[in-house]
Amino acid sequence: MLEQSNPETITKIETDSPNRFTYGFMALGACVEGFNTVIRSVITIDATHLKVKTLGVLLVSVCKDGNEMIYPLAFGFINYECTKSRTWFLKRLREVILYPEHMMIVSD
Fold it and tell me: Which residue intervals define the domain MULE transposase in the entry (predicted)?
């Protein structure tokens, strides 16, 4: 429904064999369009652990606009933080960036 009501929005969901949630990705179309046209090509990615029944990790990728304000680009929801899940998120992020060869990504 998010993709239907927001043009150019990209969402991906991945599940494991018993059809349980593993990874999720969301990039709102307006944010992607703005990033690909006028925003600086430096992306910062950070993660925070969710303190709910299912646990998991929220990944957030942001950059700065021309006024030095934080500009959201994409969000990821993963079951736990590891190389495989971060790689999955980065691959989805690369799909929304028009010129990935000109990007700089900063992460912890």
Answer: 42-108
β-pairing, 42-49 with 104-107?
parallel
Alpha-carbon distance of 97 to 103, in angstroms, equals: 9
Domain residue spans of the chain: 2-99
pLDDT at 8 over 90: no
Look at residue 13 in the predicted model and tell me its pLDDT: 92
Half-sphere exposure of 27 (CA within 13 A, CB side): 23
Name beta bridge partners: 63: 71
> What is the structure's pLDDT at 100?
73
